[in-house]
Amino acid sequence: MARQFTRKKLEPVPIPADERLTGRAVWGATIGNILEFYDFGTYSFFAIPIGQAFFPASDPFASLMLSLATFGAGFVTRPIGAILLGSYSDRLGRRPAMTASFAMMSAAILVLAVTPSYETIGIAAPLLVIFARLVQGFALGGEVGPTTAYLMEAAPAERRGLAVSFQPASQQIAATAGALVGEILSLTMTSEALNAYGWRIALLLGAATLPFGLWLRSALPETLHRPEAPVSGIQPVRRSLAARRIMSLGFVILASCTIITYVTGYMTTYALNTLQVSAPLAFGATLISNSVGIAAALLGGWLADRAGRRHIMIWPQITALLITYPVFFWISESRSALALLGGLGALTLIGTIPYSAFYVSMAEGLPKNIRGGAFAMIYAFAIAIFGGTAQPLVTLLIHLTGNALAPAWYMLVASAAGLCAMLMMPETAPPKIQSTNKRSPS
Predict the structure, then answer these.
(1) Does residue 373 contact residue 243 with C-beta atoms inside 8 Å?
(2) Which of 32, 82, 161, 436 could form a disulfide with 376 if both were Cys (CB 3.0 to 4.6 A apart)?
(3) Is it the case that residue 19 has pLDDT exceeding 60?
(4) The listed CATH number (1.10.10.10, 1.10.760.10, 3.40.50.12780, 1.20.1250.20) that belongs to domain 17-223+232-433
(5) How far apart are CA 263 and CA 41, in angstroms?
(6) pTM for this one?
């Protein structure tokens, strides 16, 4: 088999036709991504008891806001991690950057899980928690760009959409795992035990994956110097200009996606704190929503390989924009299991599809020598600005207005902005896919 050798210390990699690399890359990158996002996101599922443990206050609202602000602290260092680990992946390889990111994430969640409460060690407790969240943010900031670049570079051109869709799908799997753990703990433990130490069990489960994740990622083949098919629709002489345009549009779309994702992820706290439903139903709603999101993310990638990137971005986004307010109105008015499970599930199904197509479109549109770093940086800045503020802002809006529909307002604005940017994104699908679409009847 023909082989191409990478620079020193990177092993030889197969030519693009090697199917073993695609399957191995998707498996290895996805599993690592799942573990990292589980570690980072589980905090939000237990924001209330974590706030009580580390940020005690006479006012429950103040305690929750301090806890959510600490959750947001993890977004402050995301851009730093994106710049350093993302550029590292563009210079020395995707694999070492992904491995370093995973190691830091696992160490930070271990610190979170074992830090004594405020009552035990005083002010040192919240300081340790904030430090751990900053480390987590740095690690996750350098995860998404290299992993997305790796998935795209390992896949054949005609299957890039499906391969890259495992990036958003893995995030949904991680959120589902976190919700499932919360559901099991809420069903098997008393409320007192869940608030006292149940959340520590959920965090320790993430920390326990460190040896497996390190082994998995260290065994992956490198793709940085692997040849790839050129992207259509972008002329080489205009590559730099096109990349800047894609980066600008990508920031808007990622901001939109971030707001929608984190408001949806807030539904456990929203259901408990605002709708006053039972803990099993609250965790169950998030579990159903995220499970649907996994299938929707993979479906979006699969469709993008058949219908092109732009079509799969635009039409589902329009649909999601139209149904957001009615779904939230149904949920807030009925507060029933059917509304919470069915409405949130439907909104997640439609709203997740466009972002898989966007992920591959943006990765294809960026030059290889900046792909990991640029994707990571744009993603991290969008997350830092809009992800870290989404849940505290929604909590504050509900508190100030007394209106349970406040999350829908924010999601509507985000969806509209994302749609405008999607309409201006170029089509980056391989020529074969584009020619098939042109021959198809409209």
Answers:
(1) no
(2) 82
(3) no
(4) 1.20.1250.20
(5) 13
(6) 0.80
